[in-house]
Specification:
- The chain is an alpha+beta fold and about 800 residues long.
- The protein is built from 29 helices and 15 strands.
- A hairpin with a 5-residue loop joins strand 9 and strand 10.
């Protein structure tokens, strides 16, 4: 390999990647711990192979372990990248393959939690990613098949967790049992290298380590007698810490106790508190200094990368081989691989919980439909029915009272619950809900790509428009939740794409029928999607046969929706919201337009400004310009008068159905700019720089707005509801507000939402008369109802995130 791997730029790149990994791992592992495997089988696990290096040297220092891990894994990654670069030399992609794999490895190393940095996960992920790149280069079919098989096998092994650390390796506290008895040399192999466990005080110990580091502090308010921690030998000799006595400042200090030969014990005097960090080590200071010197390899990595860049700029032969040689069939596979990678990244962040009003309402309605019900009984306990409590307090979020007494109906439109219901009929709930969410996330990107192609975008620009939509913070934040915003985008865009297909292929008459069906589903999901009808009609060819088929395709669903609304809400054009007239007003026009101007460039990048030029750009067909402008103006104008749109950035979710038009329209303008560039060279540079800038902007916005955290945040709804289901008595009555929908979905407990102090007093009296214990479930930011209750006090029992659970104790 060394004979062929001779170019200077390749060596510079390889050195830069390896040094960057060393710097990242040094920085991430300074405060991380790692456990030595206690069983023989664990030593055969890939996550334990690194530790063998230090065992051979007789070192049991956790910092030395980390140091060796960082160097060893960086060397493994560099060797893998070098091997891949050599394998790619025949295709002209060696530097691209090595640089891409290095970037992936660096990103993983910088984002991994510290305890996971010390494993073999990263070399395997890099091997997987780089082999995928290899599979797209010019190989014979048998080798391509072998590489694809390797990808599948490695991906399956990664998914199964074969390359993940064991549970006891993630949680050093799980090895605390090692300190229950004497620490003899015979069981030294079972000791963790870095342990979070109570200090074994007054226990006979033996050790061949250099010293024991103990975290301790003097308890506040106990100035005398002086507190101290020391080691006592079997002959009664006392050995003080190397740092001297424990300072009397109430702060935690790490004291290094010298380990004598033979038996000894750790003892304390005075009011001293020992921490849960004990480290048996020898030479940690030197290794720790090495790890804390991470800026040095980082600086060397920058120098190496600069050297590689200068080499490529100064040597014509090396500069010319950077252009990858892709075959046409291989280029067509790239978007699908990107879509697969996009799905794989987002799956762990899917929010499948019945949390707030919207998600609980949609999932609750889907559960009713799955059991062939459209309404349900009001969950008001019989023993509280005559207590004078307002029945509205028993209606969970996401539902509304029906005209019929004792019945409640879903608040939200039936379209999305119907899609969830169809999935629930064929799949278990744990699969059905994520499947529907992920389907719409991916379908939105595919439809945006198809829209761009139908509007004369090249493959690259259409792919870029779809990528911009997929990385949009608004799209990710709402698409990961069981909400109707991204499904509304998908079905509106699908209807317009089908209408364009009808226009471009008039002989495909059944497509108009499908266009009508998809339009109807879009309205089922969100009735306000009727504002997309002008854009759909503009996209359709104005011929009677197409319009008739379009109407016939959607008419059955329109009749079904009218019948559903008539049955539940008493009018074919009403929903669970009731009359929506009061939600729209011209007074919201000015603040909403200002909100558009501030947040749309942030959520869709300033490149969105190119759309403003679209109506005046004569090089773009008039029909395309008319479609895009009508599409955007109808949605933006309609929701500009809505009372909620201007309140927060995520309320712009109502505009998501027009985001594909914004992305494709802007891409059309920018594509014309590139096409007009002289000789194509500046245009190519402009397009590449623009793509990188847009991607960087959106990724930073995603991180700043925490768009991937909704699943983690909303999980507390389910966890607390299930905690109450397990811990509270069966006849408990839960006082709540935002969590009523989750309680209705995940538990069988009774709940009530008080509206004021008088309502709370009446609830206490009714619960006391019915002998129902009172519990409460409120967020930290929503505890206003708790002071309404008098004649007792609330005792906090449980907390999950920002959600708290209390028990009412009468005076």
């Amino acid at each position: 390999m060394s004979a062929r791997f001779t170019t200077r730029s390749e060596r510079f790149i390889l050195a830069g990647v390896a040094l960057t990994l060393v710097a990242l791992k040094f920085r991430a592992t300074v405060a991380a711990g790692i456990a030595v495997p206690a069983r023989l089988g664990d030593w055969l696990h890939p996550t334990s192979w690194n530790a063998v290096l230090t065992v051979w040297n007789g070192q049991w220092d956790p910092f030395v372990i980390r140091l060796n891990n960082a160097l060893f894994e960086s060397a493994v990654a560099a060797a893998a990248l070098a091997a891949i670069a050599v394998s790619c030399r025949g295709s002209g992609c060696s530097r691209w393959a090595m640089l891409t794999g290095g970037v992936i490895q660096i990103v993983i190393a910088s984002m991994s939690p510290p305890v996971l940095v010390e494993s073999w996960t990263q070399p395997w992920v890099v091997a997987l990613a780089c082999t995928a790149l290899l599979a797209l280069t010019r190989f014979r079919s048998w080798r391509l098949g072998a590489l694809l098989l390797f990808i599948l096998v490695t991906g399956a092994a990664w998914t199964a967790g074969w390359f993940q650390p064991h549970a006891d390796e993630r949680s050093p506290a799980a090895t605390a049992a090692s300190f229950s008895g004497p620490l003899t040399t015979e069981i030294r192999e079972q000791l963790p290298l870095s342990v979070r466990a109570p200090v074994p005080l007054n226990t006979p110990l033996t050790s061949r380590f250099g010293y024991i580091a103990v975290s301790a502090r003097q308890q506040p308010g106990h100035p005398s007698p002086p507190a101290a921690i020391y080691i006592e030998r079997s002959n009664g000799e006392k050995l003080a810490p190397l740092q001297g006595d424990l300072p009397n400042d109430g702060q935690w200090h790490r004291l290094n106790l010298p380990v004598p030969s033979g038996l000894f014990s750790i003892r304390t005097t005075g009011a001293i508190e020992t921490g849960d960090a004990v480290e048996y080590a020898a030479g940690s200071r030197l290794a720790g200094k090495a790890l804390r010197a991470w800026p040095l390899p980082a600086l060397l990595a920058v120098i190496a990368f600069l050297g590689g860049a200068l080499t490529l700029l100064s040597v014509p032969v090396e500069r010319n081989v950077w252009r990858p040689h892709w075959q046409v069939r291989e280029v067509r596979v790239l978007p699908w691989l990107a879509l697969l990678a996009y799905a794989a990244v987002l799956v762990p962040f899917l929010d499948v919980y019945a949390g707030g009003s919207d998600s609980a309402g949609y999932l609750g309605s889907a559960r009713l439909l799955a059991h062939f019900q459209t309404a349900t009984v009001l969950p008001q306990p019989a023993d509280l029915a005559h207590a004078g409590l307002d029945p509205i307090g028993f209606v969970p979020r996401g539902f509304a009272r029906a005209a019929q007494a004792g019945v409640m109906v879903p608040t939200y439109p039936v379209g999305l619950p119907l899609l969830f219901c169809l999935a629930l009929w064929g799949l278990p709930e744990v699969v059905a809900i994520p499947a529907v969410i992920l389907f719409h996330l991916l379908a939105g990107l595919v439809l945006t790509y198809l829209l761009g192609r139908l509007c004369s975008l090249t493959r690259r620009w259409a792919f870029g428009a779809a990528a911009a939509v997929g990385l949009c913070p608004l799209y990710l934040f709402m698409g990961l939740q069981p909400m109707s915003d991204v499904p509304a985008l998908v079905w509106v865009t699908g209807a317009i794409v089908l209408a364009l297909v009808v226009r471009q292929n008039p002989e495909r008459l059944p497509t108009a029928l499908w266009c009508g069906l998809v339009t109807a589903v879009a309205v089922l999901i969100r009735p306000s999607n009727v504002v997309a009808l002008p854009a759909i009609l503009v996209a359709l060819p104005w011929r009677a046969r197409f319009l008739v088929r379009w109407v016939v395709g959607g008419l059955p669903f329109a009749v079904a929706l009218a019948a559903y609304n008539q049955h539940l809400y008493g009018h074919p054009f009403l929903t669970g919201y009731g009359s929506a007239g009061g939600l729209f007003s011209a007074e919201w026009l000015a603040p909403t337009l200002l909100h558009y101007a501030v947040w749309l460039p942030i959520l869709l990048t300033p490149a969105l400004g190119a759309f403003l030029i679209l109506p005046f750009l004569s090089t773009i067909p008039v029909a395309v310009r008319r479609l895009m402008v009508i599409w955007v103006v109808t949605f933006a104008g309609f929701y500009a008068t809505y009372s909620c749109t201007h309140e927060s950035w995520w309320y712009l979710r109502f505009l998501l159905p027009m985001v594909p038009a914004l992305a494709v329209g802007s891409a059309l303008v920018l594509q014309c700019r590139v096409a007009l560039a002289p000789r194509g060279r500046p245009g190519v540079g402009f397009g590449t720089a623009l793509a990188l800038g847009v991607a960087a902007w959106l990724l930073v916005a995603d991180r700043k707005l925490y768009v991937l955290e909704s699943g983690h945040g909303n999980q507390v709804y389910r966890d607390c509801a299930q905690w109450l289901e397990r811990q509270a008595p069966a006849n408990a009555l839960v006082v709540c507000s935002y969590t009523s929908g989750a309680l209705h979905y995940y538990s069988h407990l009774a709940y009530y939402q008080p509206s004021g102090a008088a309502d709370a007093a009446q609830l206490v009296a009714a619960a006391s008369a019915a002998r129902r214990p009172l519990f409460a479930e409120f967020f930290v930011f929503d505890q206003q109802p708790l002071p309404w209750f008098t004649g007792g006090h609330w005792t906090q029992l449980h907390r999950a995130g920002d959600l708290l659970i209390w028990r009412w104790d009468p005076a």
